[in-house]
Structure prediction request, 142 residues.
Amino acid sequence: MGAYMVERTIVIIKPDGVKRGLIGEIISRFERKGFKIKALKMTKLSLEQAEKLYDIHKGKHFYDELVNYITSGPVVAMILEGSDAVNVVRLMIGATDGRKAAPGTIRGDYSLSISENVIHAADSPERAEYEISVLFRPEELL
Prediction:
C-alpha cells in the first residue's frame, strides 16, 4: 500500500439535510475522520450554478428534478482536504439511493429517497476542482 495523495473535494449538504438539522452531524463525521475543512458556507444556489453543478446529467430524464431540488432551499457547501479525499468521502456518503445505502454511511443513516439523499460529493479529483470553481470564489478559499 503506497501513500495516498492529499487532495481536496467538495461536499454539499442538500436542502433536505439543511432543513432536517443534519449540518452539524455531517460536518462532525468528516472532522472525526480527519478531514480539514478548507472552506465552508451556507448559500442558496442560483439556477446557473445548479445547471453547471449537474451539467454531466443534462439531457437525462431526472436533470430538471435535480436542478429544481438543489435550488429549492439553502445548502451548505464545504471543501474538505485529506488523504484520498474524493474516494474516502464517497465511501462515507454511501450509495446515491439512500434506501440502498449501507447503514453507517451518511445516506444510509439519513437519506429518505434517491432524490432527497441529503448530500452531494464530487466523484473525481477533476470534477471536485470544477465543482469548487462553480460554488466558491477564489477569495473564499483558504
